[in-house]
């Protein structure tokens, strides 16, 4: 695929890539600089850094991990992470990916503290991205941010 020549083509390209986001881990963080280019008040000045992003996206598409089929009898895990530009999650069973999710953060959410972004990832990933799985099946959520442990339910004795 050739590089987008104008804002409209870039918007189409990002829409197409977003359609594949289930198969591409950490997509929102990778394409965040491209999303900045489609904002109305931004001048579209293309440079080599954007070409590198397109190349990395193409590489991810051609080398995306093989997704496993969901088995309702096996406990699921959702592993979440947050970056300055987006949230990332993988739904997995027995360490095999079932699906990926990678939503962008809004301008307001980008101002959140990192702990708040991690908690947002926990709250939104099960509700938004993996609803059909989380609604009827047991699952565990994992985050790499240690302070989120303080928000986990504790037994009352």
Show the helix and strand layout.
Elements: H1 7-19, H2 27-37, H3 48-62, E1 76-82, E2 87-93, E3 96-101, H4 107-110, H5 114-129, H6 131-136, E4 139-143
Parallel strand pairs: 1-4
Antiparallel strand pairs: 1-2, 2-3
Helix pairs in contact: 1-2, 2-3
Describe the protein's architecture and organization.
InterPro entries: DNA/RNA_pol_sf, Retrovirus_Pol_polyprotein, Rev_trsase/Diguanyl_cyclase, RT_RNaseH_2. This protein is an alpha+beta fold and 157 residues long. It has helices at residues 7-19, 27-37, 48-62, 107-110, 114-129, 131-136; strands spanning 76-82, 87-93, 96-101, 139-143. Strand 1 and strand 2 form a beta hairpin. The longest helix has 16 residues, at 114-129. The mean pLDDT is 81.
End-to-end separation in angstroms reads 60 Å
The SS-based structural class is alpha+beta
Second-tier CATH architecture of the largest domain: Roll
Just give the CATH class of the largest domain: Alpha Beta
What is the overall pLDDT average? 81
Low-confidence stretches: none
CATH fold naming of the largest domain? Ubiquitin-like (UB roll)
Quick summary of this structure?
The protein has 157 residues and is an alpha+beta fold.
Key words describing this protein structure:
alpha+beta, four-stranded mixed β-sheet, 16% strand, Ubiquitin-like (UB roll), 6 helices, globular, 157 residues
